[in-house]
Amino acid sequence: MKIKEIPKEERPREKLIENGAESLSTSELLAIILEGGVKDTNVSELAFKLLKEVGNLKNFLDLSITELTKIKGIGPAKATKILATVELGKRIILEEDKQKIKLNNAKNIYLYSRSFFYGLNQECFFCLFLNSSFHLLTHKLLFKGTMTKSSVHPREIFKEAYKINASYIICLHNHPSSNVNPSKKDIEFTNYLVKLGILHGIPILDHLIIYNNKYYSFLENNLL
Fold first, then answer.
1. What integer pLDDT is reported at residue 80 of this predicted model?
2. CA triple 168-170-171, angle to 5 deg
């Protein structure tokens, strides 16, 4: 059935306009994001097929553009719309968390920052920059890859801190292997950053290693 053959009041876009987004099913919301169908498959059917292939909404967090475009009917244009929508949702949650959570302990830092790492299959290094009252100024992804002195450039960390007049820094990175215990290189690199923080007058408050629902805090484990 073509989308034009569906009664107007049952079309996703018209339903949203009439009754609000909360009245739509997940597949109907996806249909609006996809905008159009493909040959022999209307947009509603394509959205239902996509949801069935992915399994559940949480799985969208882990999808890459390569994985999405392997699904029949999902080309680069539709895949980028889906990924952009997922990323926007993550950022909305982060903005809400930024207002609710005080970054005064490792658990709160983890709760605020865990979504940074959703869907990432390589190590990524973020910094949280705080003011003198320990309130968050901003966060930033600074590096991708294994955390070593040779691959990470500390000058970029402190350059960003100086740029926004930060007083403190919290470091974060993930272990895609799921083991959040620090490696020897993680410990060496953290110690190196701590020394530089003292030198610059911008202390490193903590360094968290994160994987899904668990984390390791250098501060909690007396490694800072």
1. 86
2. 140
End-to-end CA distance of the chain: 63
Please tell me the distance from the alpha carbon of residue 209 to that of residue 62, in angstroms, as a whole number.
19
Contacts of 171 (CB under 8 A, 6+ apart): 125, 126, 127, 157, 190, 193, 204, 206, 207, 208
CA distance 73 to 44: 12
pLDDT at residue 65 greater than cutoff 60? yes
Q: List phi, psi (to 5°) of 190.
A: -65, -45
Instruction: Provide the 10 A C-beta neighbour count for residue 137.
Output: 15
**What are the tens digits of pLDDT across the range 160-196?**
999 999 999 999 999 988 889 999 989 999 999 999 9
Query: Phi then psi for 214, rounded to 5 degrees?
Result: -145, 160
Handedness of CA 22, 25, 28, 29 (dihedral sign): positive
Dig out the tokens for 74 from the structure. 């999902």
- Contact assessment for residue 12 and residue 28, using Cβ atoms and an 8 Å cutoff: yes
Per residue in 42-64, pLDDT (tens digit) is 787 888 888 887 777 777 777 77
Q: Which two tokens stand for residue 59?
A: 């799985």
Compute the distance between CA of residue 89 and CA of residue 153 in angstroms, rounded to an integer.
Answer: 30
How far apart, in whole angstroms, are the C-alpha atoms of residue 190 and residue 33? 42
- Mean model confidence pLDDT for the chain: 81
Question: Largest Cα–Cα distance of the chain, in whole Å?
Answer: 69
